[in-house]
Design brief:
This protein is α/β, with parallel strands linked by helices. Helix content is about 65%, strand content about 10%. The chain folds into three domains: about 80 residues; about 210 residues, ABC transporter transmembrane region fold (Up-down Bundle), CATH 1.20.1560; about 240 residues, 3-Layer(aba) Sandwich (Rossmann fold). Strand 4 and strand 5 form a beta hairpin. The longest helix is centred in the first third of the chain and has 50 residues. The N terminus is likely disordered.
C-alpha cells in the first residue's frame, strides 16, 4: 500500500511536465504517455521493493542469528549456575537438546517471522482494502472465506502442539541413548552388548520417527485443504461476480481486479499457513527453553554475604545431615568433626556410607539439610561462592580433564601460573615423568582425558589442585588408580607441599591413610569412630573390618 501511494504521488508530480515535453516534441499523443510514465514508476518501485526485500532478508537473518546466539548464551549461563540437583533433574542429554535443537527451532521461527510473517498481514490488509474499493457486495465472500481458512489452520495447529512437545522429549531420549553408547563403547564391546544396544537405539529412533510421521501427515492435510478453499473461493467469486456483471452492477475489469486482490489475500494467508507449520514446534521448544531459564538454582550467593574471614583453613562439620530430594532415608545424619591446618583428616567407610556426599558439601555442590559446614568459622552458606571456592582445592572422585594441553588443564587451577609453577605442581603430583614422555607441557589432552590412563588423569587433576595453593585440600578417592609406589611417592610430596593446609582425604585403600592425623569412620551415614589408625584398631569394629579386609594383622600393626 505504501508503494502504491508513493507511485501515485510521484506520478502526480511528474505527469504535467512529462505531458508537456512529450506533446511538444510530437512523439506520443493520447494515453500512451500515461502508460509510459506509470509503467516507468512501477518498474522503479519494483526495483526498490526488490532491493528492500534483499535488505529485509539480510537484516532478518542477522537479527535471528543474534537472537539465537543470545538465547544460547543465556541458557549456558543459567546451566552454569545450577547446582547438582538441577543438573540431575533435567539431565545432561536434555540440557544439550534444549541448548541446540530447541534454540534452533525458535531461531528459525524468528527468521521466518521477520521475513514472511510481517509481510503476510500487510499484503492481506492491503488486499482487503483494495477489494472493498472495487465492490463491497462482492467483498462479503471474504467474511466466509477467511474464517474457514483460519479455522482449518487453528484446528491442525491445536492437534500438532502436543505432538511437537512429545517429539522434543523423544529427541532427548535419542540423545541420551547416543551419549551413553559413545561414552560406554568399550564396556559395550567388552561384554558383547552391541546387538542389544543397537536394539535400544533402534527403539528410541523408531519412537521418534513414528511421532514425526504423525506430525508430518497432519500437516500434509493442511496444504490440500488451503488450496481447496482457495479454488472454491475463486469459483464463488466468479459465480457471484458474473451475476453482478450481468445485472450491470460490476464491470468485467473490476471483476478481474477483484480476483487479483482475492488471490493476494489468499496467498498471504497461505504464506502465514506455511509459518504455522513452524509455530507449534517452536512453541514447544520455547516452553522447554523457558523452563530452564525460569528454574532458579537451589544454591546461590546469599543476599548479604558474610565478610570474608581470615584464610586459616579450618573446617568443621557440625551435626551435619543431608537427604537427596525425594529420598526416604537421609544419606548423612549427625556428622560432627573438625579439621585444622597442618593436619591430614581421612574419611573411610564401606561403599554407600556417604563419604563422597560428605565432602561434596564443603564446596556447596549440595547444601546440608541439617546442621552446618563451617570454613574458617563461617557457615559455607553465608560465603559468596567465589570466595568459598578460592579457599578449596577439590579433586573429584572421577578425574575430569578438558580438551587442550597438559599446561592448560593444570592452569585451570591458577590461570596466571607460569611454566615453573606448572612443572612444580606436576612434580608434586608425580606426573612429571609421563608428561615428559607425552611431549611436555604442550602435549595434547583429548576431551575428558581419553588419551590418558586412569592414574594419569588422577595425577593431572591433583596437580590442578596443588597449583592453586588453597587453604583446604579435598581429595575424593583420588589415589585409587595409582600403584603403591606412585601412591607413596605422591603422598610424601603432598605432605611436604600441604604442611600448612588442611587436607581431607576420602579413601577406599587403607594403605593411603594409615598415617593420617585423624581418621573418621562412616557407617550408614553416621560417624562410628574418630581417631588415629592405632586407636581405631583398638576401639572401632567397623574400622577393623575394613583394615583386615585389605591388610594382614602384621601389616596393619
Amino acid at each position: 500500500m505504501v508503494t502504491l501511494l508513493a507511485a501515485q504521488a510521484i506520478a502526480n508530480l511528474w505527469l504535467p511536465t512529462l505531458n508537456a515535453d512529450i506533446i511538444d516534441n510530437g512523439v506520443v499523443k493520447g494515453d500512451t504517455h500515461h502508460i509510459l510514465v506509470i509503467g516507468g514508476i512501477m518498474l522503479g518501485v519494483t526495483l526498490a521493493v526488490g532491493l528492500a526485500a534483499v535488505v529485509g532478508v539480510y537484516v532478518g537473518s542477522r537479527s535471528s542469528m543474534a537472537f539465537g546466539r543470545d538465547l544460547r548464551a543465556a541458557l549456558f549461563r543459567r546451566v552454569e549456575s545450577f547446582s547438582q540437583m538441577e543438573l540431575n533433574r533435567f539431565g545432561t542429554h536434555s540440557l544439550i537438546t534444549r541448548a541446540t535443537n530447541d534454540v534452533q527451532q525458535v531461531q528459525m521461527l524468528v527468521l521466518l517471522a521477520l521475513t514472511m510473517m510481517v509481510m503476510a498481514p500487510i499484503m492481506s490488509v492491503g488486499g482487503i482494502f483494495m477489494a472493498l474499493r472495487v465492490n463491497r457486495r462482492l467483498s462479503l465472500t471474504l467474511v466466509v472465506i477467511l474464517p474457514v481458512m483460519a479455522g482449518l489452520v487453528a484446528l491442525i495447529a491445536r492437534r500438532a502442539v502436543p505432538l511437537f512437545r512429545s517429539m522434543q522429549v523423544k529427541i532427548d531420549r535419542v540423545n541420551r541413548v547416543l551419549r551413553e553408547t559413545l561414552s560406554g563403547i568399550r564396556v559395550i564391546r567388552a561384554f558383547d552388548r552391541t546387538a542389544s544396544d543397537q536394539e535400544r537405539f533402534a527403539a528410541a529412533n523408531a519412537d521418534l520417527t513414528t511421532t514425526t510421521l504423525r506430525v508430518t501427515r497432519l500437516f500434509a492435510l493442511l496444504m490440500p485443504g488451503i488450496m481447496l478453499v482457495l479454488n472454491l473461493s475463486t469459483v464463488a467469486v466468479m459465480w457471484f461476480g458474473s451475476l453482478l456483471v450481468g445485472n450491470g452492477d460490476l464491470l468485467i475489469g473490476d471483476l478481474t481486479a477483484f480476483l487479483t486482490y482475492l488471490l493476494q489475500i489468499l496467498f498471504s494467508v497461505l504464506m502465514a499457513t506455511m509459518m504455522f507449520v513452524m509455530v507449534p514446534r517452536a512453541a514447544a521448544s520455547a516452553d522447554r527453553i523457558q523452563e530452564v531459564l525460569e528454574t532458579a538454582p537451589a544454591i546461590t550467593d546469599p543476599a548479604d554475604p558474610a565478610p570474608s574471614p581470615p584464610r586459616r583453613g579450618t573446617l568443621e562439620f557440625r551435626e551435619v545431615a543431608f537427604s537427596y530430594p525425594g529420598a526416604d532415608e537421609p544419606v548423612l545424619s549427625g556428622v560432627s568433626f573438625s579439621a585444622g591446618p597442618g593436619e591430614i583428616t581421612a574419611i573411610v567407610g564401606s561403599t554407600g556410607s556417604g563419604k563422597s556426599t560428605l565432602v561434596n558439601l564443603v564446596p556447596r555442590f549440595y547444601d546440608v539439610t541439617g546442621g552446618a559446614v563451617l570454613v574458617d568459622g563461617v557457615d559455607v552458606r553465608r560465603f559468596a561462592q567465589e570466595d568459598l571456592w578460592s579457599r578449596i582445592g577439590f579433586v573429584p572422585q572421577r578425574a575430569f580433564l578438558f580438551g587442550g594441553t597438559v599446561a592448560s588443564n593444570v592452569r585451570d587451577g591458577k590461570p596466571a601460573a607460569g611454566d615453573d609453577e606448572v612443572r612444580h605442581a606436576l612434580d608434586v603430583a608425580a606426573a612429571r615423568d609421563f608428561v615428559a614422555e607425552m611431549g611436555g607441557l604442550e602435549a595434547p589432552i583429548a576431551q575428558g582425558g581419553a588419551n590418558l590412563s586412569g592414574g594419569q588423569r588422577q595425577r593431572l587433576a591433583i596437580a590442578r589442585a596443588v597449583i592453586r595453593r588453597p587453604e583446604i585440600y579435598v581429595f575424593d578417592d583420588s589415589f585409587s588408580a595409582l600403584d603403591f609406589t606412585t601412591d607413596a611417592r605422591l603422598r610424601t610430596a603432598l605432605r611436604a607441599e600441604t604442611r600448612e593446609a588442611t587436607v581431607v582425604i576420602v579413601a577406599q585403600r587403607v594403605g593411603t591413610i594409615l598415617h593420617a592425623d585423624r581418621i573418621v569412620v562412616l557407617a550408614d551415614g553416621t560417624v562410628v569412630g574418630v581417631g588415629t589408625h592405632q586407636d581405631l584398631l583398638d576401639t572401632c569394629e567397623t574400622y577393623r573390618e575394613i583394615v583386615y579386609s585389605q591388610l594382614t594383622p602384621e601389616e596393619a600393626a
